[in-house]
Every structure is written in structure tokens, then in C-alpha cells.
Amino acid sequence: MILSMSGQAWLFLSTVLVGAVIGLFYDFFRIFRKTAAHSAWAVQLEDLFFWITATVGTFYFMLTRNYGEIRLFALLGVALGITLYFATVSRLVVKICVVVVTFLKRVIASAVRIILLPLRLIFTWIGPPIKSFAGKRRKDLRGLARYGKIQMKKTARSWFILRKKV
Question: Comparing C-alpha atoms, which of 56, 53, 72 is closest to residue 15?
Fold first, then answer.
């Protein structure tokens, strides 16, 4: 389908916006990586998810707005949108969001500690009798383990002596 000049301009501007949204979407992954520990394997899975989502989203946008035609200026608009986003506001967005998420993590951890305080007090009150009981059992198990080692050594000596005699 042939687009008018103004239609092409709107398509280009909307693809620039799509590129900026893709950049913002990737920043969510960057924020998540900075605020939570990740293994290299998890980072690879996140990147795979990002690229699949970005590709499907861009394809859907091109399908609905550009009637399925892939035009070079539309792809350049997406690339320009991503570049402009990362060059201008990406660092600021990531810094602010990391600070906010870190603050929220601390607030939630403090709230959980406050909520669980009665349980901790109960366990500190009940804990010593349980620990002393477990400590006695632990001593008994250590003694049993020592006894078992002594018996194993005696058995090994007996087998050694039997082998020599035969």
C-alpha cells in the first residue's frame, strides 16, 4: 500500500517511539540485573526473552501500522529511537530506578522483620530448651560416632590379623 508523505512521516516518528520503548524495556532488565544477583545463564535467558519480545513487538507494529511492509526508513526509525533513548535518558532512568528499587527492598525487609518480631521473640523464649535437648542429642551422637570408629578400627585390625595368618 502506498503511504502519503505525511503518513510516512507519522510512521517514521512512531517507529522512533517504538525504538525508545524497546530501549526502556531493555532498561527494566538492566535495573533488575543491578538490583538482584544473576548468574550468566540467567542473563542469557533474559536477553533471549528480550530479543524475542522486541522482535515480535516490532513485527506486530509493522504489521498493524505499515500493513506488513518492511521499509528501510521504518527500521532506521526503530534504530534511531533506541539510540536516542540510550544517548539521552537511559542512564538517568536506570540510576533513579535502582535507587528506588533498593530503597523499596530495604523498606520491605524492615517491614518483614517487624512483622516477624513476635515469632522471633517466641523462638528465643522457646529456643534454649530445644537447643539444650538438641545439644544433648548431638553429644550422644558424637559419642556413638566415636564408638563406631573405634569398633571399625578393631574390626579392621582383626581382619588384618586374620589375613596374615591365612
Answer: 72
Alpha-carbon distance values, 130 to 137, 142, 149 (Å): 11, 18, 28
Q: 75: burial class by Cβ within 10 Å (0-12, 13-18, 19+)?
A: middle
Contacts of 81 (CB under 8 A, 6+ apart): 15, 16, 17, 18, 19, 20, 21, 22, 23
Give 10-residue mean pLDDT values along the chain (166 residues): 79 94 95 90 93 93 84 92 95 95 92 83 66 57 63 64 60
Q: Is the pTM of this model over 0.70?
A: no
Cα 162 to Cα 111, 155, 156, 158, 166: the distances in Å are: 68, 10, 10, 6, 6
